[in-house]
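Milestone M4 deliverable, item 7.
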Amino acid sequence: MLHIHAAVAEQERRLIAQRTREALAAAKARGVRLGNPRPDRLRHAQQVGARMNQVEANEFARRVGPIIQGYRRQGMSLRAIVAELSRQRIPTAREGGRWHVTTVRNLLKRMPDALQSNAPVHLA
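Output delivered:
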């Protein structure tokens, strides 16, 4: 029974794909311009998004970085820091994420930037 459902779903996928190709070809034949009409806006949005990610990462580093630096001063390894952060249930930047050695290492690398970027951010 499951095999029949899978076969029907696969056939439906093929039909949808075929209808989509035909509709796009018909629109193109009518002279409709396909794709993003303003790629400059897309680039700008990507740049703003990347800057916002950087600002959020720096803010997170400002909040959590001192905790991690304290553990490093105590002589803890990155792996031990990961275990301690997890044990204390300190959330990652992506709430619900898991701490990893690379996450801690990257956060430590970011610390000088995070501490220096206290100026307001302008997203133009």
